[in-house]
Amino acid sequence: MLSGGLRGALAPGRVASGGRRAAAPHAQCPHTDGATSVSGSHLALDPLPCSTSYHRSRSSCGASTSSSSGSGSASSLAGGIAVPPATLTKSAVRRTSSHNSVIVHDLRLKLGSRDVKRPVLQGVDLQVRRGSLHMLLGPNGCGKSTLLKVLGGLLVPDSGLIDADQPSGFVFQNPDHQVVMPTVAADVAFGLGRYVLTEEEVSAAVRSSLRLVNMEDFMYRATHTLSGGQRQRVAIAGALAEDPKLLLLDELTTFLDREDQFGVLGAVKNITSERQDVTAIWVTHRFEELQFADAASYMENGRVVFTGTPDEAKAYMRKLGAPV
Ligand SMILES: Nc1ncnc2c1ncn2[C@@H]1O[C@H](COP(=O)(O)OP(=O)(O)OP(=O)(O)O)[C@@H](O)[C@H]1O
């Protein structure tokens, strides 16, 4: 039996709000109408922004792949973001052709105003093994979040090459901006309102997503009664419910105490251990989190300057004088 809130989340035509996890807005080329088509998961970017080669599905963009063959036009959210209509059945799943879920080469992006732009990503090279928990560290402003946004389709790079598993799901730092429904089950089901699914399918997706983040017992709890870490795990479950292959997790533990911090980390570790087709990229400043990682990269000035095991990463950062 589904809760009233969960039923509400299944209402036809329901769309996820912009910026919410797993419903990341598209990196939409202004020369297209938002009905993004896919020309392959391998994305080669011309030096010119918005080249015609930039057509791929990511995050909820994966769903828009179906929309090109489905009925109806994309709905538009308040922020001007195109989202697929509620007639979709499933997000498009694409894998890279190697054992890596992410391959990035010479990625470049300038940001700023139209007149004054400064380079933020300055030739990023990165490879992330499929099924791993890969941590991304580096000083403030080095480009970690920007890289994550490019991988999630929130920003369009100027040039470079991206080959990444799709669809992706994004979870941000502050769970209060992402957990919006009154009950846990309804919140996890929220993004699924965009697809044509039976109540049983939604219920199964919600339950299995909550199980992966160790929150199954909280299914009918009121979200306002949860701790910060529990809310963060609900946000991750909401992303998981849409079956992403790449989880992009941006400083999820910043506002959490130690117990909640390790609860969230344990949940993400559990996801990548149980689901070998799901890869997590975890941006953090907290060195103690490295013990959960399978691998780590260190960024400086818009580039990845080191990638290795967690121990190698610690040794590298110690050499830089970090208190690791
Ligand atoms: N939309 C934007 N316009 C202009 N500059 C931007 C924009 N977004 C980010 N930047 C700049 O790009 C640089 C990289 O920002 P980013 O948020 O990616 O860094 P970060 O490594 O995640 O930092 P932190 O660890 O502090 O979160 C910063 O100097 C930031 O001010």
Automatic annotation (TrEMBL):
Keyword field: ATP-binding, Nucleotide-binding, Transport
Biased amino acid composition, Low complexity: 11-24, 59-76
Record-level GO cellular component terms: chloroplast envelope; membrane
Annotated organism of origin: Chlamydomonas incerta
GO MF: ATP binding; ATP hydrolysis activity
Disordered: annotated span: 1-40, 56-76
GO biological process, one term: transmembrane transport
Protein name: ABC transporter domain-containing protein
Record-linked SUPFAM superfamilies: P-loop containing nucleoside triphosphate hydrolases
